[in-house]
């Protein structure tokens, strides 16, 4: 059986973590900090890394949201996405 096809994004090619990877790492950091057995210096470093990961995730979500605000027409051109009154 063949391996599943994975589309590489430009971000992954640049070495940036994917949204999913950043979220996974953030969850690990939160879990470590919640255990309360982390030395203060390490806790501060983990917290700073967590803030950075949180900002990264937020930026990636904003980018996707902006992309979702556009819809492709049949001719390949983009137009703003708007819900009809009936769809709301």
TrEMBL record:
GO terms for molecular function: exodeoxyribonuclease VII activity. One of its GO terms (cellular component) is exodeoxyribonuclease VII complex. Its EC number is 3.1.11.6. Signal peptide: none annotated. Keywords: Coiled coil, Cytoplasm, Exonuclease, Hydrolase, Nuclease. The keyword DNA-binding does not apply. It is found in: Cytoplasm. It catalyses: Exonucleolytic cleavage in either 5'- to 3'- or 3'- to 5'-direction to yield nucleoside 5'-phosphates. It is an enzyme of class 3 (hydrolase). Residues 16-74 form a coiled coil. Belongs to the XseB family. Heterooligomer composed of large and small subunits. Bidirectionally degrades single-stranded DNA into large acid-insoluble oligonucleotides, which are then degraded further into small acid-soluble oligonucleotides. This is Exodeoxyribonuclease 7 small subunit. It comes from Pullulanibacillus pueri. The gene is xseB.
């Amino acid at each position: 059986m063949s391996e599943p096809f994975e589309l590489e994004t430009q971000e992954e090619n640049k070495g940036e973590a994917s949204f999913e990877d950043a979220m996974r790492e953030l969850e690990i950091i939160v879990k470590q900090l919640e255990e309360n057995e982390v030395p203060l210096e390490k806790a501060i470093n983990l917290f700073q890394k967590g803030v950075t990961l949180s900002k990264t995730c937020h930026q990636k979500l904003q980018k996707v949201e902006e992309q979702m605000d556009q819809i492709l027409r049949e001719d390949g051109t983009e137009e703003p996405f708007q819900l009809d009154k009936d769809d709301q």
